[in-house]
Specification:
The protein is an alpha/beta fold. The chain is built from seven helices and five strands; from the N terminus they run E-H-H-E-H-H-E-H-E-H-E-H. Strands 3-2-1-4-5 form a five-stranded parallel β-sheet, sandwiched between helices. The two termini are 25 Å apart.
């Protein structure tokens, strides 16, 4: 199995998200651990956009879970991760040829488009792990129609943030 991991998953695992429940922190920690032990393969971009975002939000010399994940990633990314190419459009920082051209995604957060592009560029179209970034919720159906699955690993936390009833 392969996955793309949104930055909020590693931030939550680090304990740096006030809106994440203790259960969500545990789930994020478990997901990162599955990658570290080789049960799940992480997908990154060859331009290091995702890695650089992780590096802006974590400390490779830190002791928290997300920090240790970053340290592992810096050492093992070339042999333990799938690396795909994403192509910037007209030299723009946050627009990629691999991002779906769907009018319903026009307002999708430009800073998060790299995750969609990476998932779309990979042959398996892996799911994107999402913890508590509620901005993604309203795009989940449109993304699915475009071949991208968002795995809301802390769905009840997202529902709580958005004042929606919890799932069963």
């Amino acid at each position: 199995m392969t996955v793309v991991v949104d930055t909020n998953v590693v931030v939550v695992a680090n304990g740096n998200s006030q809106q994440a429940s203790a259960k969500c922190v545990l789930i994020c920690t478990e997901k990162l651990q599955q990658i570290i032990v080789g049960k799940v393969k992480l997908v990154l971009d060859d331009g290091r956009k995702i890695l650089e975002e992780y590096m802006r939000n974590l400390r490779s010399n830190g002791a928290d879970v997300g920090d240790r994940f970053l340290r592992w990633l810096l050492i093992n990314k070339d042999k333990m991760c799938d690396i795909v190419s994403i192509t910037p459009v007209d030299g723009l920082e946050n627009d990629f040829q691999e991002f779906p051209r769907d009018n319903a995604l026009t307002d999708f957060d430009p800073a998060d488009r790299k995750f969609i592009a990476v998932a779309f560029a990979h042959s398996d179209k892996p799911p994107i792990l999402q913890a508590v970034d509620s901005k993604w919720w309203n795009y989940r159906d449109t993304l699915k129609q475009n071949g991208i699955t968002i795995d809301f690993i802390c769905e009840n936390d997202i529902r709580h943030i958005l004042n929606l009833p919890e799932s069963e």
